[in-house]
């Protein structure tokens, strides 16, 4: 079952098209990354899924039905721009959001207390939010998203503004939520987080989808790169798109950066070298990073559009 | 609606936990309490003492009687007003049953001879309506000093020199120590061609006192002159006692000006309270909304509630704050009623004259609708602005448009209850609650009440829709607030973003 599905969704603000014919599906379970640069349409798409704004065209399905307040009890949301009621107590704040999501007073109180303790804020439960540090406030905000033990947890740029320690804490919480059965959808433009966390990815550029799939599938759209050390120039070998020498030759051996043709398997090149007695001292395959994939796909898309 | 109530409860808690709210809540009861205390403990002295040195030995007694009669005239007149307001059943033909009017000296003397106020109260008490306040006569304006503090046998200059330092000091009277305000010296040879009566006063001379002196002394001089011309004193007394027959009729209407004033006190007070509370709490709510916008809170909230629920919640919360304020003030007024004093004397007839189910319903209806209409405007402004500075640009014209006509109307209705302005404003929904409140005391026709009420409710419904559209558009909108034209376009065509 898909917990979130968008079909040919378009959102326009006046003359500006923020989301352009976007279709994708988020299957239940796991962590889904929503990647794109600034203005790619990530936040707009998430807001539409939450029924904060409505699409101009297209259809959205969340947990099997149209976006609406009926889904609130099953969704947790952490917005990109975060804030809390400064004069409200920490515990009261979490309870309040739990109640807004349809929890009973006692259930909201119980869950809020447990969550606050788990986040290490137990000693601050009775304090007003304006007395907390920024990091602690972020944790309270996260607690408001998690209080209802959501089936679908939507996090919009969750790592922005967090120091490396708290980023680690948040990564753990996301993994824990996913292990607990929640489907986590989070948007980010920091590739390292997505690389570490996501099972599936969606890359957006200027409101359009440029890629959807796993990291391994993403790697396939990028030509493989190799580092080899050989006596001869490898650019003439079958499947090689280009080879650039790096550094000076040593005792007849030289390092080369080799780009394979798209879809070319590095194992085939190794086989060809062996069969053709092409001398090699080093043959190292470099898997493309998400950053490389992103730059390749989004950069190419932007180049195409410009 | 459950979420709207949750939002309302949070808004209510937020506003009522601010210092500003408690200042607002306590300001009126504190003022009432201080007035009550001031009335009881620091009330200015109503009675002054005077010294009369009648060296002639001919006019002093008459002057004292004149001042006494003038005081009793005031008492009789006030008593007649009281009887008309509170006595029930057929009148007895007594002077106080004939309504307040200019009683002549003979009538006042008859009143005094029949036992005065004490006798009258005995007669009136069985006829008083339930809950009628007791009658309290004002004390006499002047009482003679028990002892003359200056010698009167050494001429006016010596008397003046001796009495001048005493003016303003407390001297003993029959009612206890009172401040000496007037000293009068009647020389031995006082007459048309003799030396004048000398008067020393503490401040500007009291016109009533001067008039009493002049009337009494002139009458005595005339009597002496006529006696010298051969007119018998008895004949002069008969002629002097003649009064032009004067019949005063007060047309029977639903209410006298006094009753009209009493009936208008509560509605007028309600209109003022509405204006004060809605402007104050509206400002608090506006700040709360701006805080939500500037603190980037709204997206979190809007992921759980619809903009309409948020709007209704805020309106309900603010309504609760307003209602709490009014209930607190009503409780304080009830407490003030139970404590005898100036405030309870002032409030009791007003409360009694407004104690009618329709009046109570009308007071609540117009207060609640007025509150909702103005609050919704504040809410719309708050949803459009990221800062208090932005909000000021919108609020200044809004406040002026609401306040100026309302304040002007309130002032004009006191002078002219049937004036055109309150009638016109009654039909403009933004002002209907205020106009109807200020007019309630004077009576409003059923057709007008229903007509303006329907118009008011229709306007409220449209306003809620319009504010809802502004809310929907502006809550997550960033940058400069839209211009007025764009705002109207947004209200008319909600999808125009």
Structure report:
The complex is a heterodimer of chains A (306) and B (497). Chain A is of the alpha/beta class and 306 residues long. Chain A has helices at 42-49, 90-100, 105-118, 134-146, 164-179, 191-197, 215-220, 266-275, 290-305; strands at 2-13, 16-27, 31-36, 57-62, 75-78, 152-156, 183-188, 200-205, 208-213, 225-230, 240-250, 253-260, 280-286. Chain A has a domain at 223-287: ACT domain (Alpha-Beta Plaits), CATH 3.30.70.260. The radius of gyration of chain A is 24 Å and the shape is elongated. The mean pLDDT of chain A is 87. By secondary structure, chain B is mainly alpha-helical. In chain B, strands 1, 2, 3, 4 and 5 form a 5-stranded mixed β-sheet that branches. In chain B, helix 1 crosses helix 11. The longest helix of chain B has 38 residues, at 257-294. The radius of gyration of chain B is 32 Å and the shape is elongated. The interface between A and B is medium-sized, with 28 and 22 residues.
Strand content of chain B: 5-15%
Total count of strands of chain B: 5
Number of helices of chain B: 18
Helix content of chain B: 55-70%
Largest sheet of chain B, in brief, is: 5 strands, mixed
**Overall mean pLDDT of chain B:** 81
Largest sheet geometry of chain A? 6 strands, mixed
Please compute the radius of gyration of chain A using only Cα atoms: 24 Å
Distance between the termini of chain B: 27 Å
Tally of strands of chain A = 13
Strand-pairing-aware structural class of chain A: alpha/beta
The oligomerization state is heterodimer
Notable features of this structure?
heterodimer; A: 306 residues; alpha/beta; Alpha-Beta Plaits; six-stranded mixed sheet; 13 strands; B: 497 residues; 2 domains; 64% helix; elongated
Secondary-structure topology with pairs:
The complex is a heterodimer of chains A (306) and B (497).
Chain A: E1 2-13, E2 16-27, E3 31-36, H1 42-49, E4 57-62, E5 75-78, H2 90-100, H3 105-118, H4 134-146, E6 152-156, H5 164-179, E7 183-188, H6 191-197, E8 200-205, E9 208-213, H7 215-220, E10 225-230, E11 240-250, E12 253-260, H8 266-275, E13 280-286, H9 290-305
Parallel strand pairs in A: 3-7, 3-8, 5-6, 6-7
Antiparallel strand pairs in A: 1-2, 1-4, 8-9, 10-12, 10-13, 11-12
Helix pairs in contact in A: 2-3, 2-4
Chain B: H1 2-16, H2 19-41, E1 48-54, H3 60-86, H4 105-113, H5 116-124, E2 142-144, H6 155-163, E3 170-173, E4 176-186, E5 198-201, H7 207-228, H8 233-240, H9 257-294, H10 298-302, H11 307-338, H12 342-353, H13 357-384, H14 388-415, H15 420-426, H16 432-440, H17 446-474, H18 484-492
Parallel strand pairs in B: 1-2, 1-4
Antiparallel strand pairs in B: 3-4, 4-5
Helix pairs in contact in B: 1-11, 2-11, 3-4, 3-7, 7-8, 9-11, 9-12, 9-13, 9-14, 9-16, 11-12, 11-13, 13-14, 13-16, 13-17, 14-16, 15-16, 17-18
């Amino acid at each position: 079952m898909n917990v979130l599905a968008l079909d040919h969704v378009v959102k326009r603000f006046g003359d500006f098209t923020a989301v352009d014919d976007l279709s994708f599906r988020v299957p239940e379970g796991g962590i889904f990354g929503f990647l794109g640069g600034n203005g790619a349409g990530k936040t707009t798409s998430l807001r539409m899924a939450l029924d904060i704004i409505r699409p101009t065209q297209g259809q959205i399905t969340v947990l099997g039905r149209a976006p609406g307040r009926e889904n609130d009890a099953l969704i947790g949301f952490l917005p990109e721009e975060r804030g809390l009621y400064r004069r409200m107590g920490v515990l009261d704040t979490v309870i309040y959001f739990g109640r807004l999501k349809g929890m009973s007073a006692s259930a909201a109180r119980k869950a809020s207390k447990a969550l606050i303790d788990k986040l290490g804020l137990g000693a601050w439960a009775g304090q007003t939010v304006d007395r907390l540090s920024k990091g602690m406030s972020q944790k309270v905000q996260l607690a408001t998203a998690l209080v209802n033990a959501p089936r679908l947890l939507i996090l919009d740029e969750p790592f922005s503004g967090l120091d490396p320690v708290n980023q680690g804490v948040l990564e753990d919480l996301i993994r824990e939520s996913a292990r607990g059965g929640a489907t986590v959808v989070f948007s980010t433009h920091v590739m390292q987080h997505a690389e570490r966390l996501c099972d599936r990815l969606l890359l957006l550029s200027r409101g359009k989808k440029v890629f959807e799939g796993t990291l391994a599938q993403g790697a396939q759209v990028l030509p493989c790169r190799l580092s080899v050390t050989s006596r001869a120039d490898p650019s003439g070998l079958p499947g090689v798109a280009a080879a650039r020498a790096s550094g000076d030759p040593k005792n007849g051996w030289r390092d080369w950066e080799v780009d394979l043709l798209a879809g070319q398997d590095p194992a085939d090149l190794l086989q060809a070298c062996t069969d053709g007695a092409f001398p090699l001292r080093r043959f190292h395959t470099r898997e493309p990073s998400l950053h490389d994939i992103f730059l390749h796909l989004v950069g190419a898309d932007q180049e195409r559009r410009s | 609606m459950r979420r709207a109530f949750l939002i309302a409860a949070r808004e209510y808690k937020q506003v009522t936990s601010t210092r500003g709210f408690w200042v607002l809540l306590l300001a009126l009861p504190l003022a009432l309490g201080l007035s009550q205390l001031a009335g009881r403990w620091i009330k200015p002295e109503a009675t002054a003492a005077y010294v009369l040195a009648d060296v002639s030995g001919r006019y002093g007694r008459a002057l004292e009687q004149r001042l006494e009669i003038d005081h009793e005239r005031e008492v009789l007149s006030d008593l007649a007003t009281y009887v008309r307001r509170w006595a029930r059943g057929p009148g007895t033909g007594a002077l106080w049953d004939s309504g307040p009017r200019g009683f002549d000296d003979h009538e006042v003397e008859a009143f005094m001879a029949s036992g005065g106020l004490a006798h009258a109260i005995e007669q009136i008490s069985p006829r008083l309506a339930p809950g009628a306040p007791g009658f309290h006569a004002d004390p006499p304006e002047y009482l003679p000093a028990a002892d003359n503090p200056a010698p009167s046998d050494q001429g006016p200059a010596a008397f003046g020199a001796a009495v001048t330092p005493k003016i303003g000091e407390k001297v003993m009277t029959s009612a206890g120590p009172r401040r000496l305000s007037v000293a009068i010296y009647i020389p031995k040879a006082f007459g048309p061609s003799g030396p004048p009566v000398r008067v020393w006063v503490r401040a500007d001379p009291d016109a009533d006192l001067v008039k009493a002196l002049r009337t009494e002394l002139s009458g005595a001089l005339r009597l002496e002159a006529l006696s010298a011309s051969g007119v018998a004193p008895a004949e002069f007394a008969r002629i002097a006692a003649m009064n032009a027959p004067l019949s005063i009729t007060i047309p029977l209407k639903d209410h006298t000006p006094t009753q009209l004033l009493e009936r208008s006190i509560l509605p007028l007070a309600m209109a003022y309270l509405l204006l004060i509370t809605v402007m104050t709490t509206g400002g608090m709510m506006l700040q709360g909304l701006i805080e939500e916008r500037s603190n980037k809170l709204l997206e979190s909230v809007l992921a759980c509630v619809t903009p309409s629920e948020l709007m209704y919640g805020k309106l309900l919360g603010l309504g609760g704050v307003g209602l709490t304020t009014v209930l607190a003030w009503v409780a304080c007024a009830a407490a003030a009623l139970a404590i005898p004093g100036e405030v309870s004397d002032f409030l009791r007839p007003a409360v009694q004259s407004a104690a009618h189910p329709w009046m109570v319903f009308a007071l609540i209806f117009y207060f609640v609708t007025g509150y909702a209409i103005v609050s919704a405007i504040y809410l719309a402004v708050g949803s459009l602005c990221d800062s208090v500075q932005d909000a000021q640009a919108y609020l200044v014209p809004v406040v002026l448009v609401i306040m100026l006509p309302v304040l002007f109307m309130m002032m004009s209705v006191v002078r002219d209850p049937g004036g055109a302005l309150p009638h016109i404003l009654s039909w403009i929904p933004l002002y209907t609650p205020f106009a109807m409140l200020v007019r309630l005391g004077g009576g409003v026709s059923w057709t007008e009440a229903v007509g303006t009420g329907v118009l008011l409710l229709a306007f409220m419904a449209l306003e809620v829709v319009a504010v809802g559209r502004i809310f929907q558009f502006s809550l997550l909108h960033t940058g400069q607030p839209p211009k007025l034209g764009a705002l109207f376009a947004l209200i008319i065509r909600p999808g125009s973003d």
